[in-house]
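Section: Multi-chain targets

For targets with more than one molecule, the full set of components is provided together so that the structure can be written out for the assembly as a whole rather than chain by chain. Components appear in the order listed by the source. The example entry contains two components.
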Amino acid sequence: MTDLTSLTLAEARKGLAAKTFTSLELTDAHLSAIEAARVLNAFVMETPDQARTMAREADVRIAKGDAGPLAGIPLGIKDLFATKGVRTTACSKILGTFVPTYESTVTSQLWRDGAVMLGKLNNDEFAMGSSNETSCFGPVGNPWRRDDSNTTLVPGGSSGGSASAVAALLCMGATATDTGGSIRQPAAFTATVGIKPTYGRCSRWGIVAFASSLDQAGPIARSVRDAAMLLRSMAGHDPKDTTSVDIPVPDYEAAIGKSVKGMKIGIPREYRLDGMPAEIEKLWQSGADWLRSAGAELVEVSLPHTKYALPAYYIVAPAEASSNLARYDGVRYGLRESAKNIIELYENTRAEGFGAEVKRRVMIGTYVLSAGYYDAYYLRAQKVRTLIKRDFEDCFARGVDAILTPATPSAAFGIGEKGGADPVEMYLNDIFTVTVNMAGLPGIAVPAGKDAQGLPLGLQLIGRPFDEETLFSLGEVIEQAAGRFTPARWW
Amino acid sequence: MSTASHKLLKGATGDWEMVIGMEIHAQVTSNAKLFSGASTAFGGEPNSHVSLVDAAMPGMLPVINEECVRQAVRTGLGLNAKINLRSVFDRKNYFYPDSPQGYQISQYKSPVVGEGEVLVELDGGRSVTIGIERLHLEQDAGKLLHDRSPTMSNVDLNRCGVALMEIVSKPDIRDAEQAKAYVTKLRSILRYLGTCDGDMEKGSLRADVNVSVRKPGGPLGTRCEIKNMNSINFIGQAIEYEARRQIEILEDGGEIDQETRLYDPNKGETRSMRSKEEAHDYRYFPDPDLLPLEFSQEFVEELKAKLPELPDQKKTRFVADFGLSAYDASVLVAERESAVFYETVLDKLANRARDGKMAANWVINELFGRLNKEGRDITASPVNAGQLAAIIDLIGEGTISGKIAKDLFEIVWQEGGDPRALVESRGMKQVTDLSAIEKVVDDIIAANPDKAAQVKDKPQSLGWFVGQVMKASGGKANPQSVNDLLKSKLGV
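Its structure, encoded as tokens over all components, is:
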């Protein structure tokens, strides 16, 4: 049965419809794979009973012929999504054993469409990190290793558990969130496909907030088509999230295989960093060549404010986070440390409950919003954000359909290798992805090749607002040209 | 502002002038909270009106309650204020257990309502116009309960997230009387609009009062803010105390510390709560969970078209249509319920052009007088508008005299019933039959020959005869007929 785990979601859907296998069989195969891969630490909570119940229900619906678009497909859920009756912690000690009485809008739409929940996936604490090392449940292993080494590498972050689980064939797809690159960077590190849709495309209701103006949910999947199928269920307007946008959700899958002939693809000059590894440079060139071969026109474009994006992001995101995380105070739910008075209760609980990176960002955020500093930092960063947005608008106004960039400045690195002394070293991982969040645009990461050590590398495509379809069309061209990549099993 | 003479305080170094500004927190009348669907009903078991949003559960998001926006705009219109078609919600960050989010959603830089003004009437026909700086919407906090456990405090989140309008005045208020009159008038406008029930005992209306003193016309002094006042009388007392406290310090050569103070009504004094140095840094920033609040001019116009008549307009109309004095009209319109009662009486009168003014006198003197005496509210009046209108009709048409009417009012107050039927059944009708009155007049003249002889020289003594005749007729004789008859009989 283990071969069932190697199917793509699209293939599994066919098999289920043809009754070649049942959802229960498919689900059991994944549950076994999860059990065998505990060393990866991708799942922080397995829900096998719930999975089997949901699978049986899906089988009944499939038999009756009223199956939803994701009927019987087993998925993993990032622990940032509130799941009714199932512990949800954002991988922070401060939430302890918090069990929501409610289901996030995004996951409830997946269940509405018939998907099966396998469990909750590891992530950086409150989604703050680029390596999944800040999780209170410990780091996640990347199923990919260097050709000549047994060193365990990080899967990227913050959606490290999602990327690792999808790459290791533990689930057919996973939910993820992206505030500065948290879907695209781990996808690139694990040879999976990850799309961060346009801000407002998916409801944020029921997702533990990191930075409200940047957070957006999206899928990590085994193929571009799978990502399209998942996003269609996840997306949509939600009256409970006033920042979600009320426009119809297209059939994203229909964009797969659509000709990209005549599309204008921008190559941004400013993304060509000094000291960029030749492999990344080469990968980028290959991507451009593949798209040109498919009939697209490649043009050089300029996004002049790119270099300010990362610093501005590290003001805006922590500022919002410092406020969003104020609710974790030990008063109503989650961890509560003993104390003599209310101030001590706050101090002890938050000192014990938050990890170092979260504390760092809460402090940065508190600082940049403080009286006397607000104008110099927060207000200025918001102005930069407007300029970054305008860069993209100018570019699209000149007829550019999408922009092609590398997804990350390097391949996956070892656990504990980066950011120990200087957090900025870790922050630089998001150099190609944060601009997209700052501008609220959709971005997809697609596996495109390997580096000299055999580690996967990804390319990023950035699209116009609410034009995820073009990204799926272009992404599939790259996928077709580069092929798909599966790690050799070592766990 | 238009100036009215105001109270100056005498100090050792001469007169001092008070400069007062107020922030009124008015709870918006709405069924649901500002950003959640939870009920706003007062009372209820602790934490029985709390949604996931109010409790700030992980991943919860606020959604604006449009009814609260409408109420804020209507209030802005009632304050003759500028309505801002675009405003922004900000987060005011601070830690306190009554604030589960760790921030209050408020409006900081861009409020929904801008500058306006309120005309405030004072005693003796004086008035003063107080400027409104702004009005914004914000969330109320929960309530800490310290009496449920010996070792812990509990928190009740029922009130948490209920919509408040913070109405900020300009520092145009100059003494305690003006301050009290301003709150009274503002409360009246809110109640007319139905945007706040104005119930200060329940905390629906609370005031923060900023007080400073200066030499008349001099530069502004340092102010102190007296927090959370929920009684109009206490506001007056607190201002008087605080101003004197500041004058004393200044005259002793000291300086005023800018600080937040609390008024203790038992001791009649204010005391320091926190100094400027201890003030929070609220780290305001636009709430990224909420889009800017935007609406069209048409939305405002629609609300404007449906606004009820407000006290100032009503007063003008009462004066113009029924010839009421400005004073009587302002007494009637001060409370929405009084105005409603008066207008219901008007509606039921047979001839309101003739009797409208008399009705005002009856409402103000007889009804209010009696209600005050018994400490009753107009909504609990034993005499309803229909009964009072019937009494006034009976006077107006000449069926009963004013004096009998007072007796009739008393009967209706005590026993209830239809005034017209009571007049019939109890024989209270005014006697207009001249022959019957004539007999009484003749009897009284015959019994008092001396006085009758005097009348020609002292016409004012005619009144004595009128009184005697009325008394003998048990008040039922028509006073005008009595007067006429006496005049002809006595040859005046």
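The first strand of chain B starts at residue 9 and ends at 11.
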